[in-house]
Sequence to fold (342 residues):
Amino acid sequence: MQAHAAIVRLTGNELDPHRIIDVAMERVRGFLNLRAWLFLLADPEQGLLTVERTCGEGTGAVRGKRFGMGEGIAGRAAQRRQPVLVDEAETAALGTADLPKPMPARSTLAVPLLSRGRLIGVIVAIDRLKAGHFTNQDARLLLLLLEPAAVAIDNAMLLRKSEELSVTDDLTKLYNSRYLNSTLRREVERSKRYRTPVSLIFLDLDGFKTVNDQHGHLWGSRTLVEVGKVIASTVREIDVVSRFGGDEFTVILPQTGPEGAAIIAERIRQRIAETTFLSTYGLQVKISASLGIASFPDHGQTKDDLLARADQAMYLVKGRGKNGVALAEPESPRPAIVETMR
Fold:
């Protein structure tokens, strides 16, 4: 069982699920004389298998495809939690497009990957040339050899999920204030090093309490989720959107000065004001937002400076009618209004 020991050793400390399966299957290939294989990652909550990794000529065409539990040979192995062996299996027998057409598989073996009783995924071994290539003994061997890989993938995914939860807002799935603070600190230090600007938008919804009072806190929470999606869809890929708390949101704008930040903030304000929230639930909720902007190096030298100045600018908008954007003035404790819509 040198191969089993090698897989344990090579995958034990690996944190990338793709790398884990590559390393394990490289060891397995020699034993089973594999010409092609697929790795499908399980999502038990949605009841889906997704092709994450492939090896063999032409198999890359199915990467990213999804299959239901019980669908095709991979789905049956997942559903039964047992290996499934099929000979002379045409493409249709594997489930819709498990293999690119025309690629008949004369011998196919699907083995579930289990860790602590949980389904992690399925390996589908494929031989397109020789019927009867795989046997029940091969199935037992593959189960044994891939057991440590399944545990390693499970551990890696649990760690990743734990890390995501530690920096993700439970409600909106945006980043939380912990991630905001660490990222803003890092971006300010980077801006100092490379002498580039970075800006922060601090956003507070106007009259959000009315939504809770009129419709209830459940609908208020769903409104926050929809607002978060509007903000995230309005900014650039490099920008970092966080829920600061309550009905307050922030956006970190790397490599962006005050003028560019003002343009993006106004775009966000307009999108929120124009959107009818909760319409898919049969409600018509209209809200607006007040936004404050602070930039490094114009308005502060630390992440705390930017947070305080952006927050201050936002409250000035609140005091002058709401639904607007304010930019902190350079070298001044008082921000200046960029635009206020009444």
